[in-house]
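Notes on consecutive records. When two proteins share a document, each keeps its own sequence and its own token line. Never mix them. Below: protein one.
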Amino acid sequence: MSNAGGRGTRHLFDGTGVYIALFLVVTALAVAGYWTLIPHTSPVQEPVVSEAAVPKPSVSPTTVTPGAAAPKPDEAQKPKLPEAEPETKPVQSVVTITLPPVDAADFTPAAPALVVAPLIGETVAAFSVDALVYNETMGDWRTHDGVDLAAELGTPVCAASAGTVIDVREDDLMGTTVVLSHDDGCSTIYANLQSEPTVQVGDYVTAGEVIGSVGGTALGESALAPHLHFGVTRNGEFIDPQDYLNG
């Protein structure tokens, strides 16, 4: 029996047995290498994080030292300014204005007022308000606020310019007197007329229209020959009648 077992063992390690053993070793090594090379992956579960576990960013107060430069704010924390709205221009509507036709005659400059001499006569007493002149009738020196134009009694006296009769009176020194008001701010005075002039207060007269006649009613100038006392005021001030007639 021992000889049979020994022969079996020797047969195992003979040529055929060696090959079988070598095959098994190689097969084992191949299987081991295969399992080593295959990646062993398992599903990864994402961790569940609760809101309580997430720390909230804390904002710490910033202390600014006087004199030190202020810290620059984080760009992410700067508040965004509202975007400016595009400028809109007001819509202007075109308005067409139609003017009524204008007559050229409406712009015709007014003709200068006609001024004429109240009568034709020699000047026997000139205008003088800056210097005293001798009055033969009164026997003294005084001013003379008009001109005396010599003329025969009854000589017609004309309005020097168009105007309105504003006064007809009997003056103690100058006798029967007529006053006309004119649009240029002037007034003309006609004195030493006959007692009944041909106009009354409120009448409108034109230049050259007769308003009375030469008389002898001026007691303050009775020493002179018959004449018309003619005076002119501008804005209430006496002016030289010759300047008014020649202006």
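Protein two starts on the next line and is unrelated to protein one.
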Amino acid sequence: MTYTIIDVETTGRGNRITEISIFKFNGDQVIDEFTTLVNPETTIPMHITALTGIDNVMVADAPKFHEIAQQIIDITAQTIFVAHSVNFDYNVIRNEFKLLGVDFQRKKLCTVRLSRKLIPGKKSYSLGKLCKSLNIPLTDRHRARGDAAATVLLFELLLKQENADATITSFFKKSSKEATLPPNLSSDIFNNLPNAPGIYYFINKKGKVIYVGKAKDIKKRVLSHFYTKTEKELNLCRETANIDFELSGSELIALLMEDAAIKHHFPIYNQASKRRTKAYALFSYEDRKGIQHLATNVLKGIPNPILIFYTQRDCRAYLEKLCAQFNLCPKFCHLQEGVSTCSHYSISCNGVCKGTESIEIYNERVENALSFAKESSRNMLLKEIGRNVDEEAFVLVKNGSYLGYGFIDKSTSINHHDELETFLIPQNDNSDIQKILRSKLVQR
């Protein structure tokens, strides 16, 4: 096999290339080299210059990427793309080609993951510390040629290790995720993730939670992070050294668990939305004829809302549900506008809009609907799927407050709702939780 051992330096944000170094290696010796500064066609931030020593003046007269693209294609053709934390270098180069309308694809091999397999037990697998522990000379750190040259020596050493050929071959199997997983994440950790609903934690080398997510299928969702090539996801994956998880049984409880975990850990890669969520209200009023109306509108300006929702769709869907359940008039529930009598496709009233039902009887049903809406939102017991076949889950809302969720064995006899509190995992109520639970009112 022939390899191209590659390192790039970038602008940081946006990851435009400022320098690239490629060594073509046949397994015994370097047979070709291509190294050059690159004009990134954007400003290099000062903190990047402080790290690499590459500034805007140095790259001003350097070739732009499109001017060296063919040379990169030629030198890497029919080779294995090798790098330390290969996904970073590979995706940076691939994105540069994408800007040119070129689909750049090569087989990948990561010297971090390879080192973890062939030289286990090292305290750190960063290029600098690994080279130091192995007595590999590393000069011009954080410059493309210096790092690439050191990676060549590291790769030579790895090829001489016992089982090197078999390990590299296993990395290229279609079933292997070695080329996809973050450099510092053990494949055993990933393989132990379940194909089940729950939440997962991305954890860095220091044991700090840096991201929390929820999923219907934890393993599948985690893997999707590794395939996403945004700068945020690339940085997240580079920092991830461990992944933990908690099963939820259902998507609803996963949502509730995720919210609590984010508010507990404040992970740096979980960015709360800066945009305020628009709220919608269900409200009632009486017209000049004394007919009680139900309607929905944006919460702002509604003095006495009956219920608050966080999507217009959920608000209207709940109104339709009330209308159907209590035989209310779609016209006076504002599900049909500009009509003299209602003719809704699925909801029929008892005739108040036609004058065949008295206003008093109709208004009584409206009051019953309002009482039901208020009570059902104040006290909710939501039954959910458990984490295994012998278990059930529940979510409890009492007197309008979310109390938490719990899991209970199916063989346990429960005679009253109060007995569930023994199995309750108490949680804090907040506006985000209310947004989650409001959508459930429509489904009840």
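For the record: The chain has a mean pLDDT of 91.
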